[in-house]
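Cross-posting from the chemistry board since nobody answered there.

I work mostly on the small-molecule side, so proteins are not my area. We synthesized magnesium ion and want a rough idea of how it might sit in this target. Sequence and SMILES are below. Is it possible to get a predicted 3D structure of the two together?
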Amino acid sequence: MTDTDTSKINPLENEAIYIFREVAAQFEKPVLLFSGGKDSITLVRLAQKAFYPAKIPFPLMHIDTGHNFPETIEFRDRLVKELGLELIVRNVQDSIDEGKVKEESGRYASRNQLQTTTLLDAIEEFKFDACIGGARRDEEKARAKERIFSVRDDFGQWDEKNQRPELFDMLNGQIELGQNVRVFPISNWTELDVWSYIQKEQIEIPSIYFAHTRATFLRDGLIWSADDDVVYRDENEEVEERVVRFRTVGDMSCTAAVLSDASDISSVVQEIRDSSISERGARIDDKRSEAAMEKRKQQGYF
Amino acid sequence: MDVLKIATAGSVDDGKSTLIGRLLYDTKSLTSDKLEAIEKKSKQLGYDYLDFSLATDGLVAEREQGITIDVAHIYFSTANKSYIIADTPGHVEYTRNMVTGASTSQAAIVLIDARKGVIEQTNRHFFINNLLRIKTVIVAINKMDLVDFSEEKYNQIKSDFEALMSKRDYQDQNITFIPVSALKGDNVVNKSENTPWYTGKTLLDYLENTDQKDVYNTGTPRFPVQYVIRPKTEEFHDFRGYAGKVYGGELSVGDSVFVLPSQTKSKIKDIHFYDKKVQTASRRSSVLITLEDDVNISRGDMIVKENDLPTIDKQFTATISWMDSENLTTGKKYVVQHGVNKVLAKVSTIHHKINPDYSGVDETAETLKMNDIAKVSFKLNKPIFYDAFKTHRTNGSFILIDSQSNHTVGAGFIQ
Ligand SMILES: Nc1nc2c(ncn2[C@@H]2O[C@H](COP(=O)(O)OP(=O)(O)OP(=O)(O)O)[C@@H](O)[C@H]2O)c(=O)[nH]1
Ligand SMILES: [Mg+2]
């Protein structure tokens, strides 16, 4: 113990801790949606801080598309074990097998959209009333409109024109049976805030965030992982080994890599500082249309 | 690093979104892909300039109508500060969103269109910023490019605004005036050559130089208990900690405290921040407190310093901002959420509606419509522990929840 007071506090961290505690107090069955990406890993650390010395009082849930990077899954399982947390996994493959959703095909096929059905089914199955996620307002301009407590109706839908005002730091979590609230504790963090926090707190993250050699191919000026089982590739799209890392970790089929030799956290933070392209610039799912995110959110996507 | 939260205000089309876009652009906070998207869209709309409002108007309906409907939060940082700007809508119909944006901010930028000068909406927005006791207000006189950067125009608007300032309730506000062109970038981040008569700071320069003490009003420490932590593990067998955020002032180990509502006396034993123990919990920190004595405490209770009690009462009078399409009427019941505490409340009297343009009050009002501001008294089913908003921003404010729709229908500032 070296600090004598909390005057050097990180306001964003304190806000997030406050939000976590509100969730635990206001809801009966919260769940933390865990993707294995840096934002949800950060959430886990913040939740630990919010409830220490008690354990995190809710489970984690991963909606597994089956197209995750294997490194992410290994990491997920290790983290859960080390912290003694409860993990629920629901698979998009099951939703496909049950005929609830149809797999996309073609060049830009991705399971990203299909996740929504699996997620909504799981919320219903477990009767979760609050789903905590790592979305940030700086990621995308429709997300910039999102509340910290965002109410979803029975169909999981977001009514963007009828959002509850959020005043001061009072969070209104009152809902009807069947509704649920999406909670975003790191709403006000930027990408750089998250990376700086990971560095300062020495939080472990999956290896794919750091530079490594990978079989890749180019499409639309972006670098894709050449995993032919998961990512569609034309014959003329040539595979080449490149030294890359990922800035954001979604599905292999919708997350592009960036050329980078940043092999440790401090060089990653430096790279983000210098970078001139946004994180979502490497997400093909947003490029489908200008309003892509808003549409997906209305349907219940995270 | 310091975080400064700022809200914008001003009438429709005064250039709020454009100003924020300009701030992002000139501080090189717009990444190349976002900039490309703005260039593309501006061209598509047939503009011969970059429409920076496209950077913040995130909803389809907003881009179609060219107006802001809902608050957007925009982020950028400089070497010494992080900024969070709430881009609020200017339309009268969305005044409630403006109140919302201002409630979480420590500073405000009020825009005025130099061609139009001080108009009704300026009065209203200044009134709201004053009602919410925003300590730092920057009046950006915008679209100076359309009035030939006229010093005379600027001075005229400034003196009109100063006339308004004399009517305000909260006098301890730092107010500054800056002539800008959000579209062209004059005096936003870079000093303009078109306004040699203006010797003050640029907008960003001014923000960079605001200090914590310029934006925070200090009060007395209040610790509303959010959550009780009982690990029930072997290591922490009898541990019982109170989780919450410290508001207004600071609390230290050894402080003699009172627990409300029971008014039990105790002392602070330890203050934890995660796995560390600290001596003092400063304002706005989320900590865990343990007490020397075994006191029965639950969520909504409050820990305060022994000789520093808030008002404990089952009724209060407040200025409220009504935000729902269903009217507020005398006799109606609502849930009052005061911090993390919830009680049932009944509207006992609507004293008067306040015309937010400083034109007086309406004593005949029997109901409140959306966007109305009024002085109202409430009766509660249980006492709450409050301070006047004037002396304590957090412990003097509350929200109203409709127990049928569960919607947040109003915000209040206790007298
Ligand atoms: N000439 C000139 N035009 C400006 C300036 N600032 C904004 N505009 C234009 O004014 C119009 C409205 O700007 P917005 O930024 O959308 O206005 P707003 O205040 O955000 O409007 P609401 O959000 O709907 O209240 C746009 O066409 C801008 O290009 C300026 O400094 N000079
Ligand atoms: Mg706007």
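Reply from a structural biologist on the board:
Welcome over. Reading the output above for you: The pocket of guanosine-5'-triphosphate (ligand 1) is lined by residues B 10, 12-18, 51, 53, 67-68, 89-91, 142-143, 145-146, 181-183 (CB under 6 Å). Residues 282-289 of chain A have pLDDT under 50 and may be disordered. Happy to explain the token format if needed.
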